[in-house]
Fold these 2 entries.
Entry 1:
Amino acid sequence: MNRFGDLTMSFKKETPLANAAFWAARKGNLALLQLLLNSGRVDVDCKDSLGSTTLMVASYYGHKECVRELVLQGADINLQRESGATALFFAAQQGHNDIVKFLFEYGASTEFKTKDGGTALLAACQYGHMRVVETLLKHGANVHDQLYDGATSLFLAAQGGYLDLIRLLLSSGAKVNQPRQDGTAPLWIASQMGHSEVVRVMLLRGAERDATRSDGTTALLKAANKGYSDVIEELLKFSPTLGLLKNGTSALHAAVLGGSAKAVALLIEAGADPLLRNKVVCFCFKIVRPLKLLGKSQSLNESLRRNS
């Protein structure tokens, strides 16, 4: 999901010539853009009804020469559109590192936020633009930036499964256990998305294996429900809770309800109790038995014979 929104442009420009300038910035038509700006009849900071400028448009679409022309003609680098986004934000979001570097040369700031708290760093992390993130951090971006829902740069990188970026953020001081407001930690979101290598790195860097979000679910429970056996295997190396959680269920219950025979087998092999009751008095073993009778998984059958 696009957390920050696309560069939607309004067709309501200040003048017909301004409309032509926006078109030139979008298409990268430097000659036309220069002609319009040099005519003296187009404001270099002309806006559409959403507050977008030609510099934002050129930055979004990666047209560095147009960006250069606009800046040299006096465009305000740090103007914000209605959403709060700047030219730097859009260049970072789209991974245009050369434009990001150029904008910094002329005074771009990393401090501006969108209406949901988004910054250039958060946008770059959401889309996995590692080189851009390196540039932003070098120029003072705050690795602890958060959206207003609490999501951090590390959280967004974990959600996307960007392993090298995650290593960079952790080495830059990102907090591995910093959750969103709903309690969802980076480890939890990585487990939900099935990013086993990310899960491994986070656990090795001190991620709390049994951290729960507001609904009481853990990373293991979510991975079990999704049937992500690779993630389950990584989590089991760090001895997470296999019994009932505070929300009254267990990872094994979740695996059974999710229908993954391999996930069930892994959990039972690790010591999960198939006779454990959840708060609605449901035996894991009673749900698993149909899987056994159907012969869906040899490993599940073997685990059940040993543990039931």
Entry 2:
Amino acid sequence: MTHTRPRILMLTNIDRGEANVFLATSQALLQRDAAVHFATFDGFQDAVARVSRAAAPRAAAPIAFHAIRGLTMEGGVRQCVARAGVAVAHGYLPASFVSPLRFAVTAAAIRDSCLIMAPYDGPQLVEIVASVVAIIDRVAPDLVVVDSLMTAGLTACAHAGARFICLSPNSIKTFARPAPWRYPFLFSGFPYPVPWHLVPLNVYFFLYAMVVWCTSSRRRKVTHHLLAHVGSTLRTPLDLVHNTFPDLKILVSTLPELDFPVACPPSVYPCGPIVRPAMPVAEVDKGLSVWLERGPTVYINLGSICRVDHGQALEIARALRTAFDTLDQLPGAPRIQVLWKLRFIEQLGQEPSEHFHRVLGHDIEADRVRIVDWVEADPLSILRSGHVMCSVHHGGANSYCEAVLAGVPQVILPQWADCYDYAELVQVLGIGRHGSRSTKPRWNAPELSRELLAVLHGEAARSMKAKAEQLASLCRERGDGAERGGMMRNTNGPS
């Protein structure tokens, strides 16, 4: 009797936040003897090939890569916001996403979010949908695993009648029924639970988003063009929340214990954090491993998209200066060192090194502070080295999950969208602090230093560390999230 390997098609945008969970799950699928096909936009072949090599010798065959024709989501967003005359930041994100929050900014960010929900014009979306449908027809998969944020992928799967499930790095709350009287709405920056006096405004933002989306002339034009030229109905991530797809299953990279206290929808299956296996630091960068062993470390990594201007970098430097000076004078306090991955916004004028040397010059020269633009070792391997006391990050889902898996308390400087959720969540769970509540999404030295010190020393710090270790232990007990996601031989979800 011939054994037929299940044929799985992974379908995702090229953006790392989403693509990383697809790479991790692909590796787990290979090791479960599945025939894995990976469809995304051109330029991701090397990343997919590395997963195949990592899964070899256990994998029967490497991943088959399929390039999707058309604009990437980033390319579509760039073009979309330019046509709409929307100001941008960090290269292509709408400026409203990273501006200090107030009523007008939140409203603008909601409008801009609706704008990029399907960041293509009609012909561009038709090209991508047609390309994905052709790949589905060619591969004839037993199951398609679709990026929950990939409008073109959702549309193509529905049009092709493919058997599919969704995979997301995000929270259970993302796919739960909206409850604006309890949970902060997108870009509101409100605390959880929403204070009673802010509930009317939070409800207003929710209703405003519905009105903007439903009345969008651009959405209507794209919808009509798609229907006229392909016969497809536009499907977006909003359809996942409103349960438009009967019996759809959504795998998420979390557990109920790592999320807000929200009822898990029947369609959502929490797998646990989905991350790729990471080699120990010593096997990747021996010098960094030796440096980490010198003492307790604060690891600062604001993600691949976030670029910091000189003024904001200086605020972090000043916060570190305060933390150093305070802890160095306290009996029994740790003598911390800092690994800081920093990418600057290109600016004219004074070199950033001059700023840092005014504030941290001695510590940089003494190698107590390492400021780098690239780290060869994987963030998870650094966090799991046993030497990191605190992870400072931007509030991305992957960064949150990596710190949870390592049992490391977090200080979050949220930058946009659901990053604000994770800044609230670490406080709800007692595993970290929101480092910029008063000025988000920017930060200031006094507030950041206060939150850093709360995580690094004292009774609160000990409590956060204990709770972080408890969650890490829970994740180990439940099993590897990528492996649980890889158990999807049918749409009943992982066992």
